[in-house]
Design goal:
This protein has about 325 residues and is an alpha/beta fold. The protein has helices at about 5-30, 45-60, 75-80, 95-105, 140-150, 165-175, 190-195, 210-215, 265-280, 280-290, 300-320; strands at about 35-40, 65-70, 90-95, 115-125, 130, 155-160, 180-185, 205, 220-225, 255-260, 290-295. A 6-stranded mixed β-sheet has the order 2-1-3-10-4-11, with helices on both faces.
Length: about 325
C-alpha cells in the first residue's frame, strides 16, 4: 500500500531528525573519558598503546583510560566491548590472534569479529623474533634447526595461547624447517616471557618490544626477525628467511574496534585522532625504539584485511592440522 503524502512527509521529517541528532552527537563527541579495553594481562599490547593514548587524549580533549580485562585468550575483554553501548566511549584494542585465529579455532567464541564490532583502524604491527634461552647452544637459525633435528621432540616453544601469532609462527617453522618442537601455551605475554627467561621453555616468537631489553642484557638470545628485512638499527640480526627462505609469518596486527553500529561520524573522528597521534614525532620515536612498526589505516582497510585474513588463516590452520576447540 503506497504511503500517503502526509505519511511520506512524516517519514522524511523523522529521518532528517535522526540524522541531525546523530550529526550533533558526533560533533559534540567526546564529552567524557573514553575507556580502551585491552583483553590481555598488563605488559603486552597495553604498554605500547599507553604511549599512543597520551597523545590521543590531547587530540580528543578527554582522558583515555586503558583497562586490562584479560581471560580466555582475549575473549572476555572482547565480549565486554561487543556488548557495550555503541557510543564511542568503550573501545577495544586487540590483536589479529583474538579477532581472527580465536574465531577460527574455537566453536565457543561468543562473538563474530565482522558482525559484532565496528572497525576503527589498524594502529601498528609488532616486529616478531625467534628468541631462545641462553642454555640453547645455538647462535644462528641454522644452528638452532640443526640442534632441533638432533633432539627431535625435546625442544619446547612458548606462546600466548593456542592460535596466537606466537603459536602459528612456531608451527610454521616446524613445518618449513622440518623440525619437531613441543608447543607450551601461556596466558599472556608476561607469563611466556617469564618462562623463557627462566628456561621453562627453550624458545619463543615474541615481539621485539617485549624481548629487546632482555636480549641486550644477555638474558635471552634473538636469533632472527620473522620479517623478510631486518629492523632499523639492528642489522646484525638477520631475517629468518636467510636460513628458511619459504618461511612466511602468520598475520600479526594490533587494531582499534568499537561495538557494532557505531555512528560513522564518531568512527571517522576516532580514526582521524589515532592517525594524528601516530604522526606525532614523540610517539613515533617512542614506538619505533620499542620495535613497533606504525601501520595506521582506514576502517575500510581494516575490515577488508579481516575478511582476507579469515580466509587465508583458515587455510593455514587446516594445513598445519591445528584442531578446533569445542
Amino acid at each position: 500500500m503506497p504511503l500517503s503524502k502526509s505519511s511520506l512527509m512524516a517519514l522524511v521529517v523523522a529521518v532528517c531528525g535522526a540524522f541531525a541528532a546523530s550529526t550533533a552527537f558526533a560533533q559534540a563527541y567526546p564529552t567524557k573519558p573514553i575507556q580502551v579495553v585491552v583483553p590481555f594481562p598488563p605488559g603486552g599490547s597495553d604498554a605500547n598503546f599507553r604511549i599512543v593514548s597520551a597523545k590521543l587524549s590531547e587530540e580528543l580533549g578527554k582522558p583515555i583510560v586503558v583497562v586490562n580485562r584479560p581471560g580466555a585468550s582475549g575473549v572476555i575483554g572482547s565480549e565486554y566491548v561487543a556488548r557495550a553501548e555503541p557510543d564511542g566511549y568503550v573501545l577495544l584494542l586487540t590483536t589479529s590472534s583474538t579477532m581472527i585465529t580465536r574465531k577460527l579455532l574455537s566453536k565457543a567464541t561468543p562473538f563474530d569479529p565482522l558482525k559484532d564490532f565496528t572497525a576503527i583502524g589498524q594502529v601498528y604491527e609488532s616486529v616478531l623474533t625467534l628468541a631462545v634461552h641462553p642454555s640453547v647452544p645455538a647462535k644462528t637459525v641454522e644452528e638452532f634447526i640443526a640442534y632441533a633435528k638432533r633432539n627431535p621432540g625435546k625442544l619446547t616453544f612458548g606462546s600466548i595461547g593456542v592460535g596466537s601469532a606466537y603459536h602459528l609462527d612456531g608451527e610454521i617453522l616446524k613445518r618449513t624447517a622440518g623440525i619437531d618442537m613441543i608447543h607450551v601455551p601461556y596466558k599472556g605475554t608476561g607469563p611466556v616471557m617469564t618462562a623463557l627467561l627462566g628456561g621453562e621453555v627453550h624458545a619463543a616468537f615474541p615481539s621485539l618490544s617485549n624481548i629487546g631489553q632482555m636480549h641486550d642484557a644477555g638474558k635471552v638470545r634473538i636469533l632472527a626477525f620473522l620479517d623478510p628485512s631486518s629492523f632499523p638499527g639492528m642489522s646484525h640480526i638477520p631475517s629468518i628467511n636467510r636460513a628458511v627462505p619459504s618461511f612466511t609469518k602468520a598475520t600479526n596486527w594490533i587494531a582499534l574496534f568499537g561495538p557494532a553500529r557505531m555512528p560513522k561520524a564518531v568512527v571517522a573522528r576516532l580514526n582521524s585522532a589515532v592517525r594524528a597521534s601516530l604522526e606525532s614525532p614523540q610517539v613515533r620515536k617512542a614506538l619505533e625504539s620499542r620495535g613497533v612498526l606504525i601501520r595506521p589505516g582506514s576502517p575500510e582497510q581494516l575490515a577488508d584485511r579481516m575478511r582476507k585474513d579469515l580466509i587465508e588463516t583458515g587455510k593455514l590452520i587446516k594445513e598445519l592440522g591445528i584442531p578446533m576447540e569445542d
